């Protein structure tokens, strides 16, 4: 039984492979990557796999039984790229696809939702058994701003008092490994999020507590937040997207209290305070 993992050298994919090694023999795992040199340290077979190269995808999927399709990092190109992979999987005889989608993709106002929904529809029509992992926010998405917050003396955003049910990236990776290694999950749609929920004010308080320095949360208008992000070097389009995602968070789009993620991994998800501690240490 061969299990293929796309984006296997990425932050999520490399963690999935480590968890998979405890569930199946390494020779059953295939890392599907754009750069095989980067995959050398994964300890599993690697194959060249570029979402844009429709011609070689089928060949790379030869002999793959189960495929974890980790969504492309190229926002705006995802639906087209995923379509390439899905069509190649059909031709190569892949028996099951697990896809990493977005939390509550069918109701979310996040700008990311559209491409995920389009991919989910393509998978539904593919005629291959499918499982959808609708991943919530990684806590790391916010903790990347800790250093700048400490330097500036404030944590900024546009999420208001929206509750964010994030979990560590490793939690989502473990869930993906649990699912792809057991066919009993076929046909399911899982809404995955952290056990605890917090606001960005709560996050700022935790950072303040652990850093020993008062870091208030300053809630900004969407345009103002995007302007600040752009001023520190982010491309305008990406800055606007980040600010927009925060506004969606203010509407509850990153909240979920089902605890499905912790049920899958059979342990509590990583508390936000632990992720903050890892960031500060």
UniProtKB/TrEMBL annotation:
Gene3D superfamilies assigned to the protein according to its UniProt record, in alphabetical order: NAD(P)-binding Rossmann-like Domain, UDP-galactose 4-epimerase, domain 1
Signal sequence segment: none
Stretches assigned to the NmrA-like domain: 2-244
Pfam families: NmrA
Sections of the chain in a coiled coil: none
Name recorded for this polypeptide: NAD(P)H dehydrogenase (Quinone)
């Amino acid at each position: 039984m061969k299990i293929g993992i796309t984006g296997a050298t990425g932050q999520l994919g490399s963690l999935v492979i480590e968890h998979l090694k405890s569930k199946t023999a390494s020779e059953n795992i295939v890392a599907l990557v754009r750069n095989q040199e980067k995959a050398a340290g994964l300890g599993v077979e690697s194959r060249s796999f570029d979402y844009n190269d429709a011609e070689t995808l089928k060949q790379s999927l030869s002999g793959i039984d189960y495929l974890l399709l980790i969504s492309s990092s190229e926002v705006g190109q995802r639906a087209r790229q995923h379509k390439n992979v899905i069509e190649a999987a059909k031709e190569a005889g892949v028996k099951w696809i697990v896809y990493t989608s977005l939390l509550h993709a069918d109701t979310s106002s996040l700008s990311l939702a559209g491409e995920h929904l389009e991919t989910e529809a393509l998978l539904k029509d593919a005629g291959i058994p499918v499982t959808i992992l609708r991943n919530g926010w990684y806590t790391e998405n916010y903790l990347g701003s800790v250093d700048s917050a400490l330097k500036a003396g404030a944590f900024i955003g546009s999420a208001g008092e929206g509750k964010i049910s994030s979990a560590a990236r490793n939690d989502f990776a473990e869930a993906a490994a649990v699912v792809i290694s057991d066919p009993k999950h076929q046909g399911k749609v899982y809404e995955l999020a952290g056990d605890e929920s917090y606001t960005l004010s709560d996050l700022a308080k935790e950072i303040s507590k652990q850093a020993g320095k008062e870091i208030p949360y300053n809630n900004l208008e969407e345009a103002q937040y995007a302007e600040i992000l752009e001023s520190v070097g982010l491309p305008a389009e990406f800055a606007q997207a980040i600010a927009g995602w925060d506004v969606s968070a203010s509407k509850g789009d990153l909240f979920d209290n089902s605890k499905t993620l912790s049920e899958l991994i059979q342990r509590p998800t990583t508390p936000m305070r632990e992720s903050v501690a890892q960031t500060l240490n």
